[in-house]
Each structure stands twice: as C-alpha cells, then as structure tokens.
C-alpha cells in the first residue's frame, strides 16, 4: 500500500501552521495582497506552503499579473457596499502598486547575507 499525501498548510492569524485539506477534485487558488485590497479584506492573502510526501510529482502553476507601478489599488465599490464591516478606512486601504511592491520586497528580503537589500 502506497500512502500518497500532499499537505497544504497556511499560516493562521496566530502564526501557527494549520492544514488546509483540499476537497477531492477541487482547485486551490492562493491569492495575493492586491486581491485582498481590491476585495476590502473579504479574501485574505495568506502565507502558505506545501509538503509533498507522495512518490508522484506535484504540479504547481504560478501566475503573477502585475499592474502599472503607478496604479492606485483600492477596494472595489461592490466590496465596500456589500461588506462595509471589513473596511479599515478608505485612506489606509489604498496603495500605489509599485511602492507597495518595493516595500514588500524590502521587508521580505531585507537581510540576505548580512547586508541590506539595495
């Protein structure tokens, strides 16, 4: 008997790794930070990882779509109207894509080999 297991995990708000067991035949779509902003926090961007304990290969298709660096990203009206309780404030929920991306890269890769990211 071969036990095949691919375990998908997400980091919860307490910083703990929890299992995200997929429904058979389903597709897992991890969203990014921009969709979180566009959805006014309805859809959450979570840190995730996959542990493949299966002897079979795992297929992962990563797709990144980048907006213009000077594009303002803010909650869509449909989410502001339908889910007003998720709204932090319109000003704090707006970002300029390029500034956000550069700041995120600096936070993520700030210390590589003891030097700062330039």
TrEMBL record:
Q: Where is the Isopenicillin N synthase-like Fe(2+) 2OG dioxygenase domain?
A: 7-66
Which InterPro entries is this protein grouped with? Answer: IPNS-like_FE2OG_OXY, IPNS-like_sf, Iron_ascorbate_oxido_reductase
Q: Which Pfam families match?
A: 2OG-FeII_Oxy (PF03171)
Domain of life, source organism: Eukaryota
> Which PANTHER family does this entry report, sorted A to Z?
2-OXOGLUTARATE (2OG) AND FE(II)-DEPENDENT OXYGENASE SUPERFAMILY PROTEIN-RELATED (PTHR47990)
Q: Could you identify this protein by its name?
A: Isopenicillin N synthase-like Fe(2+) 2OG dioxygenase domain-containing protein
Species this protein is from: Thlaspi arvense (Field penny-cress)
The uppermost taxa in this organism's lineage are:
Eukaryota, Viridiplantae, Streptophyta, Embryophyta, Tracheophyta
């Amino acid at each position: 008997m071969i036990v095949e297991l691919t375990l998908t995990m997400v980091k919860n708000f307490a910083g703990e790794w929890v299992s995200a067991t997929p429904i058979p035949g389903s597709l897992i779509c991890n969203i990014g930070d921009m969709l979180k902003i566009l959805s006014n926090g309805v859809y959450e961007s979570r840190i995730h990882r996959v542990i493949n304990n299966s002897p079979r290969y795992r297929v992962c298709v990563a797709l990144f779509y980048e907006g213009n660096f000077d594009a303002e990203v803010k909650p869509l009206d449909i989410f502001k109207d339908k889910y007003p309780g998720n709204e932090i404030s319109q000003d704090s929920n707006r970002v300029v894509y390029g500034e956000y991306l550069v700041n995120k890269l600096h936070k993520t890769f700030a210390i590589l080999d003891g030097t700062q990211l330039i």
